[in-house]
Each structure stands twice: as C-alpha cells, then as structure tokens.
C-alpha cells in the first residue's frame, strides 16, 4: 500500500538552489506572499509580480508563476506561454525541495495538528502542476499535452492525500460535524461509486508513483479512505434535495454530501493550515468542476486516467474556499464561482432551481468588490448577473458606469467584449458595431469574428431603413460590404491545437456561401445574406436567455423580415430550417411552448439531414440544435425538476437524439448545455434511453 504523506515524487532537486525556510520563517513568508499576490485580484499584476519576485520562498515563486499564468491564459501569446512554463518549473522545483527537506527533518518544518509535515509545500507543488497541465495544452504540442495530463493526475494524488488527512482529523475531533446520517453510504463506499473524481490505482503504476517517502509519524495511525469521504463540502441548504431513482435509491451525486458543515476557522487559526485548507478546496474543487463539464466525447480521453468529475462537489469545495477570500486561494475561488454561474450556468436551459443561487452569488460579489475595488473582473461579474436576470440595459450601465480601464489589457478586452455582446442582444446595432470594432485594438484574437458581427449589424440597419430611408440604408449597405471584405483577410491566422477557431470556420463558410449566392443572383453580397445573421449569432452566444420580452419580440421582427422578403421563395431548405430554429427559440423564451414545438415540427423536422446537406455551403447545425430546443420545451412544459415524469422522459428522449448526433458545426457552443441537461435529468431520476 502507498505510504501516507508521500504524494510528492519528482526527480531529485538541487538542494542548494534556494534557502530553506525554517518553522519560524514560514508563516511570515506565507503572509508576505499572500499580501503581494492580493494585487492580482485588483488587476495590478505587474505590482504583484514585482513584489513577489523579491521573495525566494515557494509561496512567492508560486504567486509569481500565477501572474505569468494569468497573462498566458488570457492572451494565448506564445512568448508568454514559454515564460510561464519557465516560472512554473522554478516554482515546482522550489516546492519540491522544501517538501523533501521537511520530510527529511520534520523538526525544522511547520508543525500542523491537522496535516502531515510539508503539506503546504505539497499543495504549492500540486498548484504548479495544475497550471502546468493547462500550459501544456496551450503549447499545442501533443507531447506537452500528454505530460500535462500526467501532471494533472499527480496533482490529484497530492490533493487527495492532503484532503484525506483533513477528513481523518475532522472525523476524530469533530464527529458531529461530519454528518452522521451519511454513515450508511460511507460504509458501502468501497462497493459503490460516489461519483467523485478518482484516479485508478494499481500495482502497475509507474516508478514515480511508487517513489514515496515517510510522513510525520504523528499521522501514521490515520486511516486512508478508499474514496473521498465528503467532509469538505458545503452545507446542504444550497444544493437540491436528493432525488430518487426508479429503484428508490438516493442519487449517487448527493450520497456523500454531509448534512451540516464545519467552519474551519473554528477548527484552527494557524495561517499555514488555513492556507492549506483553502488551497486544497480551490484546486480539488476546480478539478472536479472542469472535468464534469467536459463533453462525453472528450471525457473518454480522461477515462484513461480514471478521472470522473462531480460538478456539485466541485462547487461545494469552491464555495468553501471563498470563505477565505482575503487570500489568493479564496479570491480565485470567488472568481471561479462567479464566472461559472454567470457565464455557464446562466446560459444553460435545463438545470435545477438551486443551480443558480442568486442571493448567495450577489453577497459573494459584494464581498469581492469590497476587498478588491480596483478590479474590472468583479464589474464583469456584476454585469453578468444582471444579464442573467434579463436586465441588459442595467448590465450595459454597469460596464459603462465603472469605465476606468483595467491595468491588465486582457481584462479590459473582456469588459469591452462583454459590453459588445450586451449591445447585440439589445439590438443597438450602431453601438454594437462600434464596440466590436473597438475590441480589435485590445487583443489579437478573432478579428474576423469582430468584423463579421459589425458587418451583420450594418446589414440589419440596411434592412430596417431600406424602404423608408434609402439614403441612410445605402450608407449602411456600403459599410457592411466593406466590413465583410475584411472578414476573410482576418480569419485563420490564430489557431488552437493546430486547428482554426470554430467561429472563424463558421464565419468563413457564411461569407463564402453569401458570395456564391451573390454571383448566382447577380446582386451585392449584402443582398445575398440569408436569415438574420445577427439573430443567428445571438443563438450561439446564448443571448436569448438574457433577453427581456422587448428584445425577443425584436428578434422575431428581424426574422420576419426574411420570411416576408420577395427572395424568401427561392431560399434553400437550410435557410428555412435556420428560420424555424430561431423562431422557436424566441417563442420558447416568451413561454409560448406549444407554438415553439409546432414551429420545430413543421419548419425544421420536416427536412431530413441529406436534404439540408445537399444545400450549397449548408448550415447543417439546425437539426441537432432543434432536437435540443425540443428537449428544453419538454423540460419547461413539465415544470422543471419536479414536473411530470412522462414529459421529463420526452425531454430525455429529445436530448438522446442530439447526444448521438454526428459532429456538427459549433457543436461545442451547445455542448455544455447538453452536458448540464443530462446531469440534471439524472438527478431527477431520469435515465437516458
């Protein structure tokens, strides 16, 4: 059996590379590093890096590596990615060195009553491995990507061992806080999967996995659970009640969630232990969350590592870490929690009512804005919460009210982009076009997409004014033509994993399609544009779920323009299917479910996939997306999670059709929605057919 506490196994480090911290130095070094790193959450990354570079402890090096990591992941610039790899390697070596020294001579290291000696350094090491895994993918190298997945597995092993030590301590000293009602499920944990992400362990692991060292003898009597036992999860009042399956058993997802929670600040006031606790909750929670979001096709790759994510457990761990938002771990957890709900959950159509805890999110956001008032990141999250409430005007006001630019250019680009999307949903076409063109000056990515959306804005204005103000319409038409020409020249330059960006591929195909139609019809490209491309783009950015009644009715009006035009009679079936999907989605969001289903049946499902694919430069995404929209209609008609079982089964049946569909254009844009929908139905006891 693997020796407890020996999670860190890396090649021998150069022990003379830096001065080792003593037990007395360590808390001071940690406090100083956390204070410097807090500037990151205020968008002052340069100041954070400058101050962190003055320290040599593993905590300082980890914080400095984080500043590079944020720049790299926000910019995707190759030079920054390479620099980040170097900083992460330095931080990883430093953490490894200090952890080995602590194991070799425990008397010189921080003494924790909860964790094995050196756990804080093992945590630093795991955090560098997690970031290295991401950088490995961004390097667009298969070798680096595989190495990154290996580091991911090693990081999990480390985090899991630290967590087990904490669970054992809590079980021994705080037995009433572990949720006695779960004892039966825990007794069977060796025979039943908990749904929590776990790595397969076998005697066939590689040499590094077996290269373990003894930990502090004070912890040798602690049991090592077979699986994560759930003590680090959030209170049960923020999760849905356990649903029953057909067999009458509680869903695995909630089986090991405790009925109450422990305030860890009452367990210990040791700053090093609090850092370890919040850091493990952050990292392990993020791992669970990310892997649970991976679409089934990609999750099969991770099955090689035997990783399974549990979204609920991941969020509970992240929420727990946010209690320590005055340090970098809690601050990052807060950013992840807010970002996940504002940018992911809010745009999903099939989820439980408890999945979006609006009051709790608002309270967390207020805390973060108070602690870090200079950061635009929190302004972004506040605007997203307003958008999720279908208050788009308020969202734009928030983004414009706090108009001071972020010190981090990449964050400022996110703010302008978020505003641009909100203006698109508001049908403020001129302002939207101007805002997207401004985004061109802030980053080097997706310029073709920005030109495309701006051109589509002027196309809508041309259509609006064509019959009433010909001169004004002509100006917008010329502007649209000019911008459409810039699309092709500005796509395909940026790639990810050696492939063109999906939206770049999409807009190139659309422009090619309209260009060919213009030649065939002997007209300008703007006159050859089909069903409202801006309403279509709104769908792929999940804009309908953020629109109020007035904006949805404007979408229907823009779609009606196409249907009422003289040229509609000659439109191919793929354009007619686009119209049907978009009309049905608008009607669904207006709660006219019966009409929405009728439109899907009569205007989309009436066509076969071969018919649609036979069209020139076909939009073949409509049929699978229509099946998803039908699933949402059934879900809403059922009344959600507590609805009629027959309708929930119909929802699942429609979902199965899109889950089994072949790959289609922009399938990743609806992938998270499908994954969330299936997980939600499973919680309701609805098993896929």
TrEMBL record:
Where are stretches of biased composition, namely Acidic residues? 202-212
Which portions of the sequence form the region Disordered? Answer: 86-111, 175-212, 226-255
Q: Matching Pfam families, A to Z?
A: Iml2-TPR_39
Report the superkingdom from the record.
Eukaryota
One Gene Ontology term, aspect cellular component: cytosol
Q: InterPro entries from the entry? A: IML2/TPR_39
> Where are the compositionally biased (Basic and acidic residues) regions?
95-104, 240-253
Give residue spans, biased composition: Low complexity: 180-194
Q: Summarize the protein's role.
A: Inclusion body (IB) resident protein that interacts strongly with lipid droplet (LD) proteins. Involved in LD-mediated IB clearing after protein folding stress, probably by enabling access to the IBs of an LD-stored soluble sterol derivative that acts as a chaperone in inclusion clearing.
State whether it acts alone or in a complex, and with which partners, per the record.
Interacts with lipid droplet proteins.
Spell out the protein name for this chain. Answer: Inclusion body clearance protein IML2
Query: What is the organism of origin for this protein?
Result: Zymoseptoria tritici ST99CH_1A5
Biological classification of the source = Eukaryota, Fungi, Dikarya, Ascomycota, Pezizomycotina
């Amino acid at each position: 059996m693997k020796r407890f506490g020996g999670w860190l196994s890396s090649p021998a480090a150069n022990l003379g590379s830096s001065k080792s911290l003593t037990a007395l130095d360590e808390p001071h070094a940690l406090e100083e590093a956390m204070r410097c790193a807090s500037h990151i959450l205020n968008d002052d990354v340069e100041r954070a890096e400058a101050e962190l570079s003055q320290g040599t402890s593993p905590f300082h090096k980890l914080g400095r590596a984080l500043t590079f990591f944020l720049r790299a992941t926000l910019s995707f610039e190759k030079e920054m990615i390479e620099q980040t790899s170097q900083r992460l390697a330095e931080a990883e070596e430093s953490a490894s060195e200090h952890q080995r020294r602590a194991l070799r001579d425990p008397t010189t290291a921080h003494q924790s009553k909860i964790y094995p000696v050196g756990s804080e350094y093992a945590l630093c090491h795991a955090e560098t491995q997690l970031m290295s895994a991401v950088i490995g993918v961004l390097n667009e190298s298969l070798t680096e990507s595989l190495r990154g997945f290996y580091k991911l597995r090693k990081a999990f092993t480390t985090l899991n061992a630290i967590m087990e030590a904490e669970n054992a301590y809590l079980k021994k000293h705080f037995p009433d806080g572990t949720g006695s009602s779960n004892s039966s499920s825990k007794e069977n944990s060796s025979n039943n999967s908990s749904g929590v992400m776990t790595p397969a362990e076998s005697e066939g692991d590689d040499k590094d996995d077996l290269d373990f060292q003894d930990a502090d003898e004070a912890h040798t009597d602690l049991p090592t659970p077979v699986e994560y036992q759930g003590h680090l999860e959030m209170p049960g009042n923020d999760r849905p009640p356990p649903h029953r399956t057909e067999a009458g058993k509680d869903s695995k997802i909630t089986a090991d969630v405790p009925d109450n929670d422990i305030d860890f600040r009452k367990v210990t006031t040791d700053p090093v232990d609090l850092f370890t606790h919040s850091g493990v909750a952050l990292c392990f929670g993020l791992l669970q969350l990310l892997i649970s979001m991976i679409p089934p096709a990609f999750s099969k790759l991770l099955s090689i590592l035997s990783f399974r994510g549990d979204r609920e457990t991941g969020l509970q761990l992240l929420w727990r870490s946010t209690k320590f938002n005055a340090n970098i771990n809690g601050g990052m957890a807060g950013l992840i929690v807010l970002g996940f709900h504002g940018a992911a959950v809010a745009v999903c159509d099939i989820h439980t009512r408890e999945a979006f805890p609006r009051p709790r999110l608002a309270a967390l956001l207020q805390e973060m804005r108070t602690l870090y008032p200079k950061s635009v990141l929190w302004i972004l999250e506040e605007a997203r919460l307003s958008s999720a409430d279908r208050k788009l005007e308020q969202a734009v006001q928030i983004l414009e009210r706090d108009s001071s630019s972020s010190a981090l250019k990449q964050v400022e680009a996110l703010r302008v982009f978020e505003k641009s999307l909100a203006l698109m949903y508001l049908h403020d076409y001129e302002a939207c076009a101007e805002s997207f063109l401004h985004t061109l000056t802030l980053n080097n990515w997706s310029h073709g997409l920005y030109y495309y959306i701006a051109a589509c804005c002027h196309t809508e204005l041309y259509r609006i004014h064509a019959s009433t103000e010909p001169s004004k319409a002509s100006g917008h038409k010329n502007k649209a033509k000019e911008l459409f020409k810039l699309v092709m020249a500005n796509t395909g330059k940026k790639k990810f994993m050696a492939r063109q960006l999906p939206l770049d591929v999409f807009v190139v195909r659309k422009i090619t399609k309209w260009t060919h139609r213009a030649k065939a019809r002997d007209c300008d490209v703007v006159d050859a544009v089909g069903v409202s491309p801006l309403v279509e783009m709104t769908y792929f950015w999940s804009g309908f779920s953020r629109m109020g009644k007035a904006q949805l009715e404007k979408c229907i009006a823009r779609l009606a323009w196409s249907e009422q035009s003289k040229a509609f009679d000659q439109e191919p079936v793929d354009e007619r299917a686009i119209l049907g999907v978009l009309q049905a989605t608008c009607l669904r969001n207006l709660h006219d479910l019966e009409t929405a289903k009728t439109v899907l049946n009569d205007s989309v499902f009436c066509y076969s996939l071969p018919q649609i694919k036979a069209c020139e430069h076909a939009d073949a995404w409509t049929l699978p997306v229509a099946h998803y929209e039908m699933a949402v209609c059934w879900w809403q008609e059922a009344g959600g999670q507590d609805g009629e079982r027959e309708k929930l089964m119909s929802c699942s049946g429609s979902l199965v059709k899109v889950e089994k569909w072949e790959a289609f254009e922009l399938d990743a844009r609806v992938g998270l929605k499908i994954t969330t929908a299936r997980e939600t139905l499973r919680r309701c006891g609805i098993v896929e057919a």
